[in-house]
User: Fold this.
Amino acid sequence: DPDLCLAAVFERHGQTGHHSLGLIKGFGLKQGAIASTVSHDCHNLIVVGRDPADMALAANTLVDAGGGLVCVNQQEVLGLVELPVAGLLSLLPPQELAGELSHLKKGIQSLGLEGREPLLKIATLALPVIPDARLTTLAWWMSNPSSSCHCWLRR
Assistant:
């Protein structure tokens, strides 16, 4: 299915080691992978992709960076914003950070995610309190059965 993606979330705070793996339809990613440690409200490491090798590179890139946002395609990092302070904050001056974010957004859009703020799609995927399908370290959470986003889980 050309609209089916792999998804994973990993607890990254050293508390439980929990993780969930699943399939998601309707996310919009056409190729490659994106990963983020900006993942409301838990800020765990979340990865969505079409290719497991790209997903692994994206996740490991963020582990090495101490957190952040990344997009990968065909084993090449297209964009990276390092967030070394708790996986949420950058040490860069604002203008330099803005340039890196702009480059990252262009990379993400080249993978097929559309919209003005494509990063919100992954940053809110693990937020179970808003309507739609969400992925947590324990399970998929579907609060809206008529969602355009359909999920299958293996934990």
